[in-house]
Amino acid sequence: MTPTPTPAYSVRVRVRMVNRPGTLGRLAVAIGDVGANIVGLEGFVVTGSHLTDEIVVYCGSETHQQQVRAAIDALPDVEVLEWHDRTHVMHRGGKIEVVPSSPLNDQDDLAMAYTPGVARVCMEIARDTDVSYEYTIRKNTVAIVSDGTAVLGLGDIGPEAAMPVMEGKAMLFKHFGGVDAFPICVDTKDPDEIVAIVTALAPTFGGINLEDIAAPGAFDIEDRLVAALDIPVFHDDQHGTAIVTVAALHNALRLVDKKHEDLKVVVAGVGAAGVAVSKMLMAAGVRNIVGVDRRGAVHTGREDLNASKQWFAGNTNPDRLAGTITDVIAGADAFIGLAGPDLLTVDDVKSMATDPIVFAMANPNPEIRPELIADIAAVIATGRSDFPNQINNVLAFPGMFRGAFDARARKITESMKSAAAVAIAEVVGDAVRPDYIVPSVFDPRVAPAVAAAAAHAAREDGVCRP
Fold first, then answer.
1. Cα(408)–Cα(423) distance, rounded to whole angstroms?
2. Which pTM was predicted?
3. Are residues 422 and 407 in the same domain?
4. What is the pLDDT along the chain (466 residues), one digit of tens a residue?
5. Are residues 37 and 142 in the same domain?
6. Structural domain total, the chain
7. Is the previous residue joined to 21 through a cis bond, with omega within 30 degrees of 0?
8. Is there a contact between 177 and 399 (Cβ–Cβ < 8 Å)?
9. What CATH number is attached to the domain comprising 37?
10. Known catalytic residues?
11. Which of 298, 289, 134, 165 is CA-nearest to residue 236?
12. CA distance 432 to 177
């Protein structure tokens, strides 16, 4: 099966064609015949017997891109002049930059922005470091910290390879939450070193967003930083995922008329995200959660569990089910995938309870392709932007930090996370339907709603600076 065409594998093609009726049509047919989708025509330039045109084509993979190229090259009246992978072009030179927020036009500006005037501000902060939140970037700046050990669905690819993701995260912080953010990719996997580095960097930032750090080290790092620092620390892979998943499940349950306390939920992936999602689901009332990792269902009878999975085993899987996903998913009301591609089969979904809910959130490729179960599952969600119901952390983290900063919160509390989940679900409101259980990431209501809810919860919890 040809992968679904997506902007992630789109190409921009400049072609030169013989100016003859039917040539453009043959080009379109050739591209369509190999399963790609033309989504843009940039306009024709006619030069006598030939014309040139730029087209944008969505493909499904790099192999698919090559198939499209071969199909175009096979046309006798069409010549490819330029061929660009749009995703790679976007990333050239990086995706963010630092720009000044104050003018620097003359000697007056220079004398205030730098020496000698800056010394007055420095001494003010030296007398009271809390003033740094008023006179520096701290009040609105987050460090995005990663060691590159658990990047998307790609695994341990290293800090350099993690940088494009962290740059993208910084873009999302700014666009959706008005929060300035900067990537800090560290060349160490040692939790002690990561904690030491972040602690040393903390005076520069108003908050810390931990990103793509593998479990179980991620739990230890976050716990220690929360204890050591008086600024918000948030491991987005855990808590951002959990917040949006809980919001999505809340609305999905409205559609199938089921209650949290009556559910059987199978969670594929018991890493940082899987554990955090399960904890929030339990707090929401779910009593029967079965987690599955690479070696099967997690239960108290297993002797190969790390500390976080031991906790998980002791608080989930009340029937001590064992075996693979196929062995434990029968009768489940919901599947939450946080693991990897193609782990779930059509027969697995058919074995679930009536009106099954399937959240296949692995990126870039889900646990099961949504089109395979469209006529079986009552509600389907993924982590991808090219399918309905994208469970995307961007619905949570920009608003969460916006609210924390607005409230001058010293930490992110459980109440703030729960309030954020409710706020996201309520944006959908009465418009909920099977293909709309979470709002679009571009819905302008989301970040302000999450920020207001998180700020209110922070004030109620008494964790804010005066």
1. 20
2. 0.91
3. yes
4. 677 898 999 999 999 999 999 999 999 999 999 999 999 988 777 777 899 999 999 999 999 999 999 999 999 999 999 999 999 999 999 999 999 999 999 999 999 999 999 999 999 999 999 999 999 999 999 999 999 998 877 889 999 999 999 999 999 999 999 999 999 999 999 999 999 999 999 999 999 999 999 888 999 999 999 999 999 999 999 999 999 999 999 999 999 999 999 999 999 999 888 999 999 999 999 999 999 999 999 999 999 999 889 999 999 999 999 999 999 999 999 999 999 899 999 999 999 999 999 999 997 789 999 999 999 999 999 998 878 999 999 999 999 999 999 999 999 999 999 999 999 999 999 999 999 999 999 999 999 999 999 999 999 999 999 8
5. no
6. 3
7. no
8. yes
9. 3.30.70.260
10. 114, 169
11. 165
12. 24
Same domain, 83 and 135: no
Q: Based on the fold, state whether residues 115 and 172 are members of the same structural domain.
A: yes
Residues 200 and 257 in one domain: no
Q: Does residue 223 lie in a domain region?
A: yes
Domain that includes residue 403, residue range: 236-466
Strands (E), 211-362: 233-235, 264-268, 288-293, 296-297, 334-337, 357-360
Inside any domain, residue 165: yes
For residue 159, is the peptide bond before it cis, meaning its omega torsion is within 30 degrees of 0?
no
Question: Is residue 387 in a domain?
Answer: yes
What are the tokens at 367? 């646990």
Q: Quick one: 273 and 402 in the same domain?
A: yes
Q: How many other β-carbons are positioned within 10 Å of the β-carbon of residue 362?
A: 23
If asked whether residues 113 and 221 sit together in one domain, one would say yes
CB contact at 8 A, 213 and 191 = no
Least Cα distance to 358 among 255, 251, 261, 249 occurs for 249
In a domain, residue 308? The reply is: yes
Rg (CA), the chain: 25
Query: Per 3-state DSSP, what percentage of the chain is helix, strand, and coil (rounded to 5)?
Result: 45, 20, 35
Instruction: Find the CATH number of the domain harbouring 165.
Output: 3.40.50.10380
Instruction: Tell me the Ramachandran region of residue 43: left when phi exceeds 0, alpha when psi lies from -120 to 50, beta otherwise.
Output: left
- Of 202, 76, 92, 86, nearest to 142 by C-alpha is 202
